[in-house]
């Protein structure tokens, strides 16, 4: 399985720089990015389906009776799930994946309610029925699969490290002894640090942007989470004072979180991913991949 953004640090730097260009080019744009379209018109690479029937999906029945889709997302992860403070618009790869699913279920952008939910609250939001599905850097794990189901994976990345640009002591995960390492509560990276890096000092916040602020003010030494997320922070840092170091040291497969037992919805989304490779590529190319970094769409794992 290929990982995103593997390669040397120099390559990571190049990828981050390219991502920066992309993100600034797309930031606040009202142009032709898929986030303007699609599920809301425009030139998105997917159309709003008509007369969708999805027998046996309790989630779809609820969507129909509410006449809207409530989607859990992240709001502080540039390039993946990001809310523009000025316009209130959500953008990024995950947000486009979420809108593609909604469009395929027959719901355009005007019928989507995006609900920002931090890492630790995802399973409960799905179990409580607060959201219909969740798309936000959500790794498929056996532990989580005891509480909810996942469609996908639709993307693969791995845990990485973000430090200040002038840091010379942390070059990889081998250099974390005695270091304050920040991640989000309830995430796979904080769990990995606690379980497998016993000499590191874990620091937790609800959201990664709080970790990034702590890194910048010197109260932690590193931020750890998926490299795809960290590259967004590095490239969007207004002071250009952050860098991603090392290689990804886990494999994180992103899934769409949904209610446990809704096999009809899970199969629907898995079929969408399997049949919609061209759409996936267009979404990827216009968001995370607009730097020119090519990755393969992962094969869906249609577990029964
Ligand atoms: N993919 C990891 C996870 O699901 C880290 C990113 C996140 O917290 O959303 O825990």
TrEMBL record:
One GO biological process term: amino acid transport
Family matches, as Gene3D superfamilies: Periplasmic binding protein-like II
Name used for this protein in its record: Amino acid ABC transporter substrate-binding protein, PAAT family
GO cellular component: extracellular region; outer membrane-bounded periplasmic space
Family: Belongs to the bacterial solute-binding protein 3 family.
PANTHER family: ABC TRANSPORTER GLUTAMINE-BINDING PROTEIN GLNH, AMINO ACID ABC TRANSPORTER PERMEASE
Keywords associated with the record: Signal, Transport
Ranges of residues in domain Solute-binding protein family 3/N-terminal: 68-291
Secretion signal span: 1-25
Superkingdom assignment: Bacteria
InterPro entries recorded: Bact_solute-bind_prot3, SBP_3_CS, Solute-binding_3/MltF_N
Biological source species: Arthrobacter woluwensis
SUPFAM superfamilies: Periplasmic binding protein-like II
Lineage, highest ranks first: Bacteria, Bacillati, Actinomycetota, Actinomycetes, Micrococcales
């Amino acid at each position: 399985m290929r990982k995103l953004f593997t390669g040397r640090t120099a390559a990571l730097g190049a990828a981050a720089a390219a991502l920066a260009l992309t993100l600034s080019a797309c930031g606040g744009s009202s142009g032709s990015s898929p986030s303007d379209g699609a599920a809301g018109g425009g030139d998105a690479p997917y159309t709003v389906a008509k007369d969708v029937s999805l027998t046996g999906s309790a989630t779809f029945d609820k969507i129909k009776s509410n006449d809207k889709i409530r989607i859990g997302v992240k709001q502080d992860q540039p390039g993946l799930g990001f809310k523009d403070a000025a316009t209130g618009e959500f953008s990024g790869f995950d947000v486009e994946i979420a809108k593609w699913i909604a469009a395929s279920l027959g719901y355009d952008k005007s019928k989507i309610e995006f609900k920002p939910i931090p890492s630790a609250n995802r399973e409960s939001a799905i179990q409580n029925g607060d959201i219909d599905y969740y798309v936000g850097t959500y790794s498929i794990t056996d532990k989580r699969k005891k509480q909810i189901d996942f469609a996908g994976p639709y993307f693969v990345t791995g845990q990485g490290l973000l430090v200040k640009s002038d840091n010379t002591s942390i070059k990889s995960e081998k250099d974390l002894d005695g270091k304050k390492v920040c991640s989000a509560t309830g995430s796979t990276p904080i769990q990995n640090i606690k379980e497998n890096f016993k000499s590191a000092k874990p620091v937790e916040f609800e959201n990664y942007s709080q970790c990034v602020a702590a890194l910048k003010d010197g109260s932690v030494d590193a931020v750890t989470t998926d490299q795809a997320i960290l590259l967004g922070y590095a490239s969007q840092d207004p002071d250009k004072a952050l860098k991603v170091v090392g290689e990804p040291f886990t494999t994180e497969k992103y899934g769409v979180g949904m209610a446990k037992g809704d096999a009809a919805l899970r199969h629907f989304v898995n079929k969408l991913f399997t049949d919609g490779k061209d759409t996936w590529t267009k979404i990827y190319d216009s968001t995370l991949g607009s730097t020119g970094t090519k990755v393969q769409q992962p094969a869906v794992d249609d577990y029964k």
